[in-house]
# Entry
Amino acid sequence: MRLKIRHNTQYTYERPVTYGLQQLRLTPKNDHNQRVLDWTITIEGGQKELAFQDHNANHVDLIGFSGDGHTISILCEGEVEITDTSGVVGKHTSPAPCWYFQQATDLTRAGNQTRKLIKGLSGDHAQAIETLHTLSARIREAVAYDTGHTDAQSTAEDALSAGHGVCQDHSHVFIAGARALGFPARYVSGYLMLNDRIDQEASHAWTEAHVDGIGWVGFDISNGISPDGRYVRVATGRDYREAAPISGIRVGDHGTEQLEVHIQVQQ
# Structure
């Protein structure tokens, strides 16, 4: 399947920013089941400083901005060809070793709520796929998809305690549970073509767990499936912070900040 994507992000500040830097993880990955045919990033109100590949094999563009402007606009657009592999990404190839994805982070640390969630599940790799799908189903029962209850700083334990969350929270809970069972697990940020509309207000997030003999396998907890030909993998990491589409720092008193995101994904 060939997907066409247009992703526009605009930051508007009450007063000009003295100086700022942003890391953009907005370029889709090239791998055995995903081929980037065309991709461009256009910056207004700032300039690209450099580009590099990070330890998660993410393409990162570093942009700087300063001066009199009140608005930073980032437009990404292009086409990606996807081969449906039922969620199987395959062998581990990123610079970070596989054991790196067994390490807990502040957002994915397993606590009492996570241990209750995985009670009775096995870390036996012979039953891995069944176990991980069961974990995904338990998360959907424990954490209803609902906005307004969590934010970018919420942890897996926070989401389980609240009983509500979004795809970021579902992913963090899955990662915490999978790691507690002994499986390396990582966060994936990217795009999903929806069946009922083209326009979207946010990108999507899901997870991948590493299974002996298979490699990385994807799980979209929020939708209860493994990724298919409608999914575009952009960035991966131990949690949201390592795979966030945009992250950065600002210097100076810029007053209030307003963020607008407009995304289109279509065949």
